[in-house]
Amino acid sequence: KKRIILDVDTGIDDALAIGYAVHSPELELLGLTTTFGNISLPEATRNSLVLLEKLNKEIPVYEGADKPYARELFKPYVRHIHGEDGIGNCFSSHPLRSAAAEHAADFIIQQARKYPRELTVIAVGPLTNMALALDRCPELPELLDRLIIMGGAVTVPGNVKPTAEANIYADPEAAEYVLTAGFKLTLVGLDVTMQTLLPQSAVDAWRDQGSELAEFMADMTDFYMQAYQDFKPGIAGCALHDPLAVGVAIAPDFVTTQPMYVAVDTGDSPTVGRTYEISADEASTGAGKTIDVCVEVDAERFLQHFLGRIL
Ligand code: BDR
Ligand code: CA
């Protein structure tokens, strides 16, 4: 089994990623770590706990960053995409459990030391918790087996801005720090996640199944589906961004990757949050320290795999 930590800003596609991960026998989910992003930190933590309760899993949740690494909150929350509550307005009652006392960054470090070169972190929100973990443990890149990030748009336009993807845009300084820190890193960006669309027919089939979990997933996802229709009228579904990052942990051959040096625009750059390929000479990481950028995806095979496990 592959030991993983999932770093989330739960969020509807984060919730789908959590469901997919806990139902995947190849993965051992050691814990969820939470960050601000789609919604506020306390809401992300609460939603993660709600999800685990629905999924009947006692996996611990560690709360992390409530704002970006080196600036004040910058990107507005995206309640028009994920709902007022972050889970498609499906929140009904408070979870019975609460988050663990330890900070998310410390939990990541502790597990990385406990399982050297065995742990995969899948980060599907802003990269703040990973940046804080790097500050506290500079040898983290050597300790992890791999870091899989849902974020960026290297070869395609952005979503939250014409040039920026939401997770990177929410904390560009953290993103630059983490992307150039020397991790063995797979970047699952909009380059591939805008191709993995969940069709409405699949969500309707969940509802027909009738279980409480299926109904919750369907109600929540319907909200996200509508948001995608508003965002891109006529689009064939809603994007499975965060689930694809989990899919890549299970089966790396869902995607084709290319080694690249990637830079992030930071500070007050007009294209802040942009992720783009640079030459080895321009890279601050030193020669050889490329990251693996996903450039192609077998969308149909991934979708069938995801659908076979989500409920
Ligand atoms: C990413 O941004 C968030 O809104 C989603 O949960 C996903 O992680 C897509 O750009
Ligand atoms: Ca997310």
UniProtKB/TrEMBL annotation:
Gene3D superfamilies registered for this protein in UniProt: Ribonucleoside hydrolase-like
InterPro entries for this protein: Inosine/uridine_hydrolase_dom, IUNH, Ribo_hydro-like
Pfam family membership, one: IU_nuc_hydro
Keyword set includes Isomerase: no
Keyword Hydrolase: yes
MF annotations from Gene Ontology: hydrolase activity
SUPFAM superfamilies per UniProt: Nucleoside hydrolase
Keywords for this protein: Glycosidase, Hydrolase
Domain of life: Bacteria
Inosine/uridine-preferring nucleoside hydrolase domain mapped to chain residues: 4-304
Protein name: Nucleoside hydrolase
